[in-house]
Amino acid sequence: MITIGQLARYVGVSTKTIRVYHDKGLLPEPDRDASGYRRYGAADAIELIKIRALAEAGVPLARIRDLRAAADEDFQQALREIDDGLTARIRDLRATQGRLRRLAAGELSPLPTEVTAFLRRLPGWGFTSRWVDLQRDLWILVFATHPDEAMTLFGDQDEILADPARRQLFLDYDHAHDLDADDPRLDDLARRIVEATRARYGPDELPELDTGSEIPALVQGTVNAESPAWRRLDTLIRTRLKV
Predict the structure, then answer these.
(1) Report field, pTM of the whole predicted structure over 0.70
(2) What does the alpha-carbon distance between residue 215 and residue 229 come to, in Å, rounded to a whole number?
(3) CB-side exposure of 165: number of CA atoms within 13 Å?
(4) Within 10 Å of residue 237's Cβ, how many Cβ atoms?
């Protein structure tokens, strides 16, 4: 028979923890001996080890108390469910660890190979490195925040840039970055973009400017913050599309 301090050392918990288990009804509290000490046996140590294992698995103490009083079949089923939960947690932790390691390596988020190949084509088409960097950051943002919709959005832009005439509008948009906000060339570019948009969608299928989705606002807000000229260009396009 051993004291509470010895039991705590053997099992690897504190005496305070054992007393909490007594108070919660998880571990029976033995009677005191003639010297006034509570003495614990091997069965107490085994029970304490089981309780500690469940607690370390994240099982609430109230649930542990119920499990300790459950029939063996119910107890085993509960252990299987706890094990499945731990497996899922481990999988999520490993995914988080992978993201942390990519972050440490300077990779905020891995992009699909289609997007990476698309970004590599941009300089060859005449886009500035500023535009390529902005596009990369935007796609990282979209894929991280809206993974279910990101590939559809990317496919749409990839299709647009595959057309040389429409690609030229994006090139002009890129090179308008350094223009003054009141430069008349912005009015002409906005007119051409609106005409191309109307030609693509038709008068009855123009894209909604305010769809309720966070993605367009998220992307356009990031673009507008880069340049006063881009911000005015966005205003001109929105105004003309509403006419």
Answers:
(1) no
(2) 22
(3) 7
(4) 20
